[in-house]
Give the backbone structure.
Amino acid sequence: MHIRVRSGGHDYEGLSYVSVLPFVIIDLINLQSVTVDATNNTAWVEAGATNGKLYYSIAQKSRTLGFPAGVCPTVGLGGHISGGGYGLLLRKYGLAADNVIDAQLIDVNGRILDRASMGEDLFWAIRGGGGNTFGIVVAWKVTWFQFRPATVTVFTVEKTLEQNATQLVNRWQYVADKLHEDLFIRVILERTSSTDARELSRTGLAKDDCTEMSWIESTLYFAGFSRNTSLEILLNRTQPSVRFFKAKSDYVKEPMPEVALEGIWESLFQLEVGSGQLIFSPYGGRMSEISESSIPFPHRAGNLYKIQHLAYWDEEGIEESNRHISWIRRLYSFLAPYVSKNPRLAYINYRDLDIGINNQGNTSYKQASIWGIKYFKITLTGWSMSRPKLILLISSETNKASHLSQLDHHDEEGSYKVEQPNKDVRVLYWTSMCRLIIAMRFFEM
């Protein structure tokens, strides 16, 4: 019998609510209270609450307060925090898990443990290494932050490849992780139609593009809502639109050459139905200051940026799914020479069964290490050197993530040849600061 634990239901491979074996779901949806302590700058957040619920609850106390969680308001905080969830404040305050100071966990014996009673080893293990391996976390105690000044500025600028987007993104790779920690710049690459691109008349940033707002209003902006949308929308647990998708992740330690960027443009153009997208999120700042062993999330200093690969489609059926998944696998293979190696690293909250799965039933340490080293950078043995009490728990719990993929395994080291890029590609270039939150979009035709 398998146990699946669901907080918000956003697991990228559905592992929080599916299994090939008989299973039960522990659904935390009714555990969603948020208790804010404005005096001590803390909040107790139940694991079934969402990012949006936390943001809304903090805003009820003050619109100058914020917390470094993700841009998607419907994501459940149980999985978001336990898997190393992040947002636009990544370079300023680190991950959501970096700002957890206590927790409540139900262990296998039914005991409710807090940080003091569970001990520092277990408290270390539950923050950033993937959800509910050592028990069921039912609540987190987090610290939040005061924004001064209280006003931020957001803007969006759209451009085209003919305005040197390739060179722009190439230059971005050299500076994004080295800028002041108040500045967060992320790049989004995706294809657009020639008609959309031709309609773009401006090429620069004007004062009229800029809008001042509070930080809580900026969470609506980056979630895709208009500024006049009521904050109550943050309490909605249902996404406005849902599509089929497959995701992958990478970490980049050295700037890619321009030929790699040109290969991405060509790959995006090849996706005939649906859409593809790559999101580059910069590191540096606070992320480079925190030790990679401070919590189980090891991706810290030495990373320029993280890539999220995405393929979206709307039609049901195995044939349609396989076509888009094959596309993202080819792109993933093409990028192999330009991303982290030995191992090729991945982000646990963008779970990807292609990089390794456990055997059904009993599995082995060797089998689990295939994917474990990619998510956690070091072997489980490496963990045991500094956390000796945890290795037995890890070894006995690895089979809980087993899941049968209906898709063939793909060799990440395969090759993918590209031709000259077509220009129907757009580059979304997002910038944000604690004081200045910017979204700049660059289109290319």
User: Anything to note?
Assistant: Residues 318-334 form the longest helix (17 residues). The chain has a mean pLDDT of 82. The chain has 14 helices and 17 strands. The two ends are 53 Å apart (CA to CA).
